[in-house]
Design a protein that fits this description.
The chain is an alpha+beta fold. It is built from seven helices and 14 strands. The protein is globular. The chain starts with 7 loop residues before the first helix and ends in an 11-residue tail after the last helix. This is Inositol monophosphatase family protein.
């Protein structure tokens, strides 16, 4: 499919509709759901499955292939020229189970290995962040405003050594789960997010796009290039993500990560 055949404004509206439908299914299950375990021992709930079904029902009308965490068969059909939806119907399943509210729906459109549209929806807080190539970034349909106080570092809730990094650069730590982290970076409520342990393609694609749209940057720590969402394996490289105001500090942060013996890398996924 060529660039001129992509009506991104229309696809954006369809993605929003799919995200809202998934969120409705998730909230319907919030007080009563069943828990299963996947082969890798990660959690799966009936909410994940019903949200996935709702997204497929809507996105399938676009006739663009769908790759989802909960139905990964099409992943081996991707290549560098592919166009496909990349979906996490419920990002933060553990947080959903614990009812912390820190979970979301993630939908991205990938074209030639990079996202060109992204939607992140937090059903509990009824907040939806979205954008597509050539447009502004929206929060609940309104163009977002950027906060200029970006002296915080976002950390996942898994144990890691990122606190040493924060202390070295005098950054406060905000602990968050799921792709909700990216909404903080996009709005300027935080400036730095470093992932030193495993994540999957569907976890980051929508947030990656929104961050770049806001003027920020997100790079693989292995080759300092933007993440490739068409690669054959489904795990991301470790990465660094910076808000627009933090971008000038990229070289300082990379120097520290490359030279520090205090920062440990791992392949665990939270």
């Amino acid at each position: 499919m060529s660039d001129q055949h992509l009506n991104l404004s229309n696809l954006h509206q369809i993605a929003l509709k799919a995200a809202f439908a998934a969120g409705a299914e998730i909230l319907k299950s919030y007080s009563k759901f069943q828990i299963y375990y996947k082969k890798d021992n990660s959690l799966l709930t009936t909410a994940d499955l019903s949200a996935n079904e709702a997204i497929y029902k809507i996105l399938s009308k676009t006739q663009i292939p769908i790759c989802s965490e909960e139905s990964i068969l099409p992943f081996n059909q991707r290549d560098e020229n592919s166009i496909f939806w990349l979906v996490d119907p419920l990002d933060g399943t553990r947080e959903f189970v614990s009812r912390s509210g820190e979970f979301c729906v993630c939908i991205a459109l990938i074209y030639r290995s990079r996202p060109i549209l992204g939607v992140i929806y937090s059903p509990v807080h009824n907040q939806i962040y979205s954008s597509y190539q050539g447009s502004s970034i929206y929060k609940n349909g309104e163009i977002i405003s950027i906060n200029e106080n970006e002296s915080s570092l976002i950390s996942g809730k898994s144990k890691n050594d990122i606190d040493k990094f924060a202390k070295n650069f005098n950054l406060d730590i905000i602990k968050l789960s799921s792709a909700i982290k990216f909404s903080y970076l996009v709005q300027g409520f935080a400036g730095v997010f470093i992932r030193l342990y495993g994540s999957s393609l569907w976890d980051t694609a929508a947030g990656d796009f929104l961050l770049h749209q806001s003027g920020g940057i997100m790079l693989s720590l292995s080759d300092l290039k933007p993440l490739n969402y068409a690669k054959k394996e489904t795990l991301n490289d470790n990465f660094i993500a910076l808000s627009s105001l933090q971008k000038p500090n990229l070289s300082r942060y990379l120097d520290y990560l490359n030279s520090s013996k205090n920062i440990k890398f791992s392949n665990n996924i939270d």
